[in-house]
Amino acid sequence: MATNIRVETDADGVAAYEAHLTKSDGTAAAVYVDNDFNFVSIQTR
How far apart are CA 17 and CA 22, in angstroms? Predict the structure, then answer.
Protein backbone atom coordinates (compact mmCIF):
# COMPACT_ATOMS: atom_id res chain seq x y z
CA MET A 1 0.00 0.00 0.00
CA ALA A 2 1.13 3.57 -0.64
CA THR A 3 -0.02 7.12 0.04
CA ASN A 4 -0.41 9.45 -2.92
CA ILE A 5 1.27 12.82 -2.32
CA ARG A 6 0.52 14.49 -5.66
CA VAL A 7 0.06 13.85 -9.39
CA GLU A 8 1.40 16.23 -12.00
CA THR A 9 2.57 16.46 -15.58
CA ASP A 10 6.11 15.14 -15.89
CA ALA A 11 8.58 17.99 -16.43
CA ASP A 12 11.50 15.56 -16.93
CA GLY A 13 10.08 14.06 -20.12
CA VAL A 14 9.99 10.46 -18.86
CA ALA A 15 6.22 10.17 -19.41
CA ALA A 16 3.09 12.31 -19.60
CA TYR A 17 2.35 12.23 -15.85
CA GLU A 18 4.06 11.34 -12.61
CA ALA A 19 2.54 10.41 -9.27
CA HIS A 20 4.58 11.03 -6.14
CA LEU A 21 3.99 8.36 -3.50
CA THR A 22 5.19 7.31 -0.08
CA LYS A 23 5.31 3.53 0.18
CA SER A 24 4.24 1.74 3.38
CA ASP A 25 7.91 1.32 4.37
CA GLY A 26 8.45 5.11 4.14
CA THR A 27 10.30 5.01 0.81
CA ALA A 28 9.47 7.81 -1.63
CA ALA A 29 8.63 6.81 -5.20
CA ALA A 30 7.54 8.41 -8.46
CA VAL A 31 5.31 6.37 -10.78
CA TYR A 32 5.27 7.47 -14.42
CA VAL A 33 2.30 6.89 -16.75
CA ASP A 34 1.58 7.80 -20.37
CA ASN A 35 -1.36 9.78 -21.81
CA ASP A 36 -3.57 6.66 -21.61
CA PHE A 37 -2.52 6.12 -17.96
CA ASN A 38 -0.51 3.01 -18.82
CA PHE A 39 2.45 2.30 -16.54
CA VAL A 40 5.80 3.48 -17.95
CA SER A 41 8.25 3.17 -15.03
CA ILE A 42 8.84 3.70 -11.33
CA GLN A 43 11.68 5.51 -9.63
CA THR A 44 12.39 5.05 -5.91
CA ARG A 45 14.53 7.24 -3.73
Answer: 17
Pairing status of strand 28-33 against strand 17-23: antiparallel
**The pLDDT value given to residue 40:** 98
Single-letter amino acid, residue 6: R
Q: State how far the Cα of 43 lies from the Cα of 35, in Å rounded to an integer.
A: 18
List residues bridging with 28 in a β-sheet.
22
Q: Is 45 a residue whose pLDDT tops 90?
A: no
Q: Are 21 and 5 in contact (CB under 8 A)?
A: yes
Neighbours of 17 (CB within 10 A): 16
Q: Are 13 and 1 in contact (CB under 8 A)?
A: no
